[in-house]
Amino acid sequence: MPLLMLKNLPRYECLLAAAKEFPDLDPSACEAFLHLLRAGDECFRAVESNLARHNISQGRFGVLMSLLNNCRGESSPTALSPAELADRTAVTRATMTGLIDTLERDGLVTRVPDTEDRRMMAVGLTEKARTLLHEILPDHFRRMTALMQSLDESERRTLVQLLNKIQEQAAAMAPPPAPLAATLS
Questions:
Q1: What is d(CA 61, CA 125) in angstroms, rounded to the nearest whole number?
Q2: Which of 64, 28, 62 lies closest to 48 in space, CA to CA?
Q3: Which residues contact 6 (CB under 8 A, 6 or more apart)?
Q4: pTM score, two decimals?
Q5: Cα(152)–Cα(163) distance, rounded to whole angstroms?
Q6: pLDDT for 49-88, tens place per residue?
Q7: What is the pLDDT of residue 181?
Q8: Which of 70, 140, 138, 132 is nearest to 103 (CA)?
Q9: CB of 132 within 8 A of CB of 126?
Q10: What is the per-residue DSSP string for the chain?
Q11: What angle separates helix 58-68 from helix 27-52, to the nearest 10 degrees?
Q12: Neighbours of 177 (CB within 10 A)
């Protein structure tokens, strides 16, 4: 799902004209921001098309990758609680429940009693999920490489540094999460 929802970005001259009406509009900041969103949308679309060929959504793929990458210092992945998965994939716990339900229905994850607290459940990968990921990941990694091939190694490092600065600024601007008690009311 695209975030920007603009087919054509406004020309810089249009941003300059808009800045006369809206003095808080910094044309170069707006231009950079719109290009960042457009690039993100295009990258998302490139990845999404590959996942769609395997009948898997970005959300479900994120859960599977979180489980695959959860080795906790061991050689093989360990199970995670639904709350841990929600935190790692930046979705609500309700959304995570739906993702786990569909992954379980499709035989890609199992719910097992937590080894430390039997009242809790943990989610683990099935062999079917591992097989699916081994089908998806080679092309997924090729696509990532292809998307970045126009940048040399130095430009990629610079891009990562710049994006980290933007992420830090966005995090500083975001409102703090609501206290748990307030979300239950």
A1: 12
A2: 62
A3: 34, 38
A4: 0.78
A5: 16
A6: 889 999 999 999 999 999 998 855 555 667 888 999 999 9
A7: 47
A8: 132
A9: no
A10: --SS--SSPPPHHHHHHHHHH-TT--HHHHHHHHHHHHHHHHHHHHHHHHHHTTT--HHHHHHHHHHHT--TTSSS---B-HHHHHHHHT--HHHHHHHHHHHHHTTSEEEEE-SS-TTSEEEEE-HHHHHHHHHHHHHHHHHHHHHHTTS-HHHHHHHHHHHHHHHHHHHHHSPPPPPHHHHH-
A11: 80
A12: 8
Task: Return all residues near 147 (Cβ < 8 A) that are at least 6 apart.
Answer: 43, 46
Residue 40 structure tokens: 């993100």
Which residue's structure tokens are 């859960």? Answer: 63
